[in-house]
Amino acid sequence: MVVYSFYIFDRHAECIYKRRWLPRPTSTVGKSRSDTVSGAAPTGLGQTVRSTDDDSKLVFGTVFSLRNMVRKLGGEDDNFVSFTTSQYKLHYYETPTNTKFVMLTDLKSPSMRIALQQIYINLFVEYVVKNPLSPTEHPGGVGVNNELFEESLEQNLEVSSREQVHVRKGETAGSHRSGHIEAIIYKSGISKAQERHSCNRAHTAADSPVVKHTVLRAPACDGTFWREKKITGAQHRSQARQGHPYRLFM
Amino acid sequence: MPDNTRGVFSLIIINKAGGLIYQREFQSGLRNLSTNDYLVLAGTFHGVHAITRSITPKIPISQPAPSPATSSTGITAPAASGYSYPNPGVPVSGLDYLETDKFRMTCFQTLTGTKFLLFTDPLTGSVDTIIQKIYELYADYVMKNPFYQIEMPVRCEAFDRHLGAWLRGRT
Question: Which three-class secondary structure state does DSSP give residue A78?
Answer without folding.
Answer: coil
